[in-house]
Amino acid sequence: MDPRVINPFLKATSEVTRQLLCLDITYRKPYIKKTPFISKGILVIIGLVGAVKGKMMLSLSKENATKIAQIMMYELTEENEALLQSAMGEYSNILIGNTSRNMSENGIDVIITSPTILEGDQIKINQKESVISIPALIGEDIEIEFFLSVE
Prior knowledge:
By secondary structure, the chain is of the alpha+beta class. It has one domain (about 5-145): CheC-like (Chemotaxis protein chec). The chain is built from three helices and eight strands; from the N terminus they run αββββααββββ.
């Protein structure tokens, strides 16, 4: 994958997670994810169009998505499906929006699509483009996995 795409994403993810959640993010070793693959829990998909075409996806358990939503919404004390999905959509939008800004600073202009949020135990992802998986840990216990694919 082109470092002009992945480096702006990693930078944006670190900055946004620190600013929005007041937590650090630690990346694990990236790898090529073979498709089709299964995602469990919450899957958010945001498309990129323009100089680069592709998508960013993030996958995490519902429990971990709830932890993020509780941090973002401060006093969210009960599981509220609408607020959970809203928080995950907003977190993803901010991540990819900042990625887009970082890419434009390097001369790569892209537009992002609205997020698609899926939930389930067997979400099957099958696509022709290669997928880079970046597992990460937010704080000490929020596991999340990012997927980047570019045509």
